[in-house]
Known about the structure:
Bound molecules: iron/sulfur cluster
Structural class: alpha+beta
CATH class: Alpha Beta
Distance between the termini: 5 Å
Number of domains: 1
Number of strands: 4
Amino acid sequence: MKASVDKQMCIGCELCPGVCPEVFAMGDDGLAYAIVETVPADALDGAKEAAESCPVDAIRLG
Length: 62
Ligand code: SF4
């Protein structure tokens, strides 16, 4: 499964790196980005939780 963040939508709430730091981090622009292209198997649950918790639905998994 791949992960990405739509920076047009992200509001920089910092939730996703808190929920799943294996996959997401905050960039210098104050917006989140995926630090890996493919989600590690042991981070799948965290990545899904982050995607479901994002207040603006900016995280794409697939
Ligand atoms: S949870 Fe959503 S809005 Fe918040 S930093 Fe992550 S991608 Fe951006």
